[in-house]
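Q: Second attempt. The first request was missing the SMILES, so the protein and uracil are both included now.
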Amino acid sequence: MVYNLGQSTSIFNTFLGELRDCTVQTDPMRFRRNLERVAEVLAYELSKHLDYQTELVTTPLGEAEVSTLKQQPVLATILRAGLPMHQGLLNYFDRAESAFVSAYRKHTTAEDFDIHVEYLASPSIDGKTLIISDPMLATGSSMVMVYKALLKQGKPSKIHIVSAIAAPEAIEFVKKHLPDTACIWVGAIDKELTAQSYIVPGLGDAGDLAYGVKC
Ligand SMILES: O=P(O)(O)OC[C@H]1O[C@H](OP(=O)(O)OP(=O)(O)O)[C@H](O)[C@@H]1O
Ligand SMILES: O=c1cc[nH]c(=O)[nH]1
Ligand SMILES: [Mg+2]
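A: Got both inputs this time. The predicted holo structure:
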């Protein structure tokens, strides 16, 4: 199932708009915070699809029934551009465990590249809800490689992919390689990819905009 939050009118699209806007992108702190805000909204919407239990809490004046998560999810993210979205998800799922995986494009020619996954630090994901975040789903290769690398840590009971902007190719690629029950949460699905596999109109290079140009 694909949930595209940008399709409904809300303040969410203002955050996405600022992420895309070259004149706002000059402020890296605002760029990171907007990624975090986008992830916070996506986290809230996703939270409606998790399982809850009822608990009693004691207030100064009595007892109240509250619904709490039955099980904490594992929040995995892809270094480096995933970090601000990871923080946004953690702001809502504040008791979740975290997993970090590195993935980067190593170019063989100007247009061709392999994805290198080198670092993985993760708790067991066996029987747990796994939420993987990354702001950009361009070809979808980084997401699929990271998902496969995480399977060394167990078999998740449910998978959610959380992304700010996706290309149609990536949605198809992720759907093909992840279980049918996986949910994809995105802020927007853009038109196409460039020959270098950048999303158009997209926002540019999310990692560079958040943390500086790699050399
Ligand atoms: O869907 P794909 O075609 O795999 O592209 C998307 C990947 O590209 C970006 O990371 P990048 O490789 O630029 O690394 P960075 O986070 O260090 O900038 C982005 O954060 C994704 O991980
Ligand atoms: O458009 C894209 C594609 C890959 N990585 C990015 O940061 N942006
Ligand atoms: Mg990058």
